[in-house]
């Protein structure tokens, strides 16, 4: 569904991502680990097509189409949706106004959907203005639920979320990815996702298929998400750099 080939990206005139190769198959949930500043959010922003991230070499394919030069709105129409780590405040635009635009031609009861994740009282507030960390996450989730993309880019869904709200966020993401029917019986009907996490808490709610470790702007390792997480916790990220040096990456 998503294929990234030998991608190099500059940010603010400086090289940041290099030689990134990554594939997310249809219906798969993939995880992206990596230390602070490694370039994980930059990679998600580049996939979404945000203008600060300039592809200098390599290609991005989505549903078989080359989207490397496609604008954000086209990627969104094709079915890519993002939950950003720090979405901007949008002064003068109410959350409900944005949701009404996103829900055009879809039969969605915005009030009911907002109620279901405790966001009804935010509908008439300017987007993100004064929202707490957890409220921003729920607002982003609500927008994604209305947008209903085929491919989810989720940047640290658990950051800033208290344990009680984490259960709600985790369950909501699980349901979002599996909105088409019985995903246990047929995993391919799941929506696809690429999720950044530091703590791995989201793995308690999802069946993740594969994880990548991004260090210094490049993918160093890939493998089973829970196994990689426990290696990171016990040995840190140094081990993944050694693994890259010792073995060519198995994508
Ligand atoms: N728009 C930008 N302008 C300048 N520098 C940027 C920009 N976006 C990212 N960077 C820099 O690129 C580097 C990678 O940032 P990025 O946010 O992708 O890291 P990350 O792996 O997501 O880190 P974290 O785990 O801390 O969120 C950082 O040094 C950051 O300061």
From TrEMBL:
Keywords: ATP-binding, Nucleotide-binding
PROSITE patterns associated with the record: ABC_TRANSPORTER_2
Record InterPro entries: AAA+_ATPase (IPR003593), ABC_transporter-like_ATP-bd (IPR003439), FeS-cluster_ATPase_SufC (IPR010230), P-loop_NTPase (IPR027417)
GO MF entries: ATP binding; ATP hydrolysis activity
Residue ranges of domain ABC transporter in the record: 2-241
Matches recorded under Gene3D superfamilies: P-loop containing nucleotide triphosphate hydrolases (3.40.50.300)
Family annotation (Pfam families): ABC_tran
Protein name, per record: ABC transporter ATP-binding protein
């Amino acid at each position: 569904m998503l294929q990234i080939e030998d991608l190099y990206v500059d940010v603010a005139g400086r090289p940041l991502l290099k030689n990134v190769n990554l594939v997310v198959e249809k219906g798969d949930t993939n995880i992206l680990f990596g230390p602070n500043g490694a370039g994980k959010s930059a990679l998600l922003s580049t996939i979404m097509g945000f203008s600060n991230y300039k592809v200098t070499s390599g290609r991005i394919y989505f549903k078989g189409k080359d989207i490397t030069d496609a604008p954000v709105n086209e990627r969104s129409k094709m079915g890519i949706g993002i939950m950003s780590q720090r979405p901007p405040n949008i002064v003068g635009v109410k959350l409900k106004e944005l949701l009404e635009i996103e829900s055009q031609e879809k039969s969605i009861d915005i009030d009911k959907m907002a109620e279901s994740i405790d966001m009804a009282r935010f509908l008439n507030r300017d987007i993100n203005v004064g929202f707490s960390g957890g409220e921003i996450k729920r607002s982003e989730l609500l927008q994604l639920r209305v947008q209903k993309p085929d491919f989810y880019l989720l940047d640290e869904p658990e950051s800033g979320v208290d344990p009680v709200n984490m259960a709600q966020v985790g369950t909501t993401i699980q349901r979002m990815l599996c909105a088409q029917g019985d995903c246990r019986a047929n995993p391919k009907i799941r929506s696809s996702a690429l999720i950044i996490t530091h703590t791995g808490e989201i793995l308690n709610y999802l069946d993740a298929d594969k994880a990548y470790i991004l260090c210094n702007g490049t993918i160093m390792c890939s493998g089973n998400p829970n196994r990689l997480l426990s290696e990171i916790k016990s040995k840190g990220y140094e081990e993944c750099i050694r693994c890259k040096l010792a073995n060519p990456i198995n994508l």
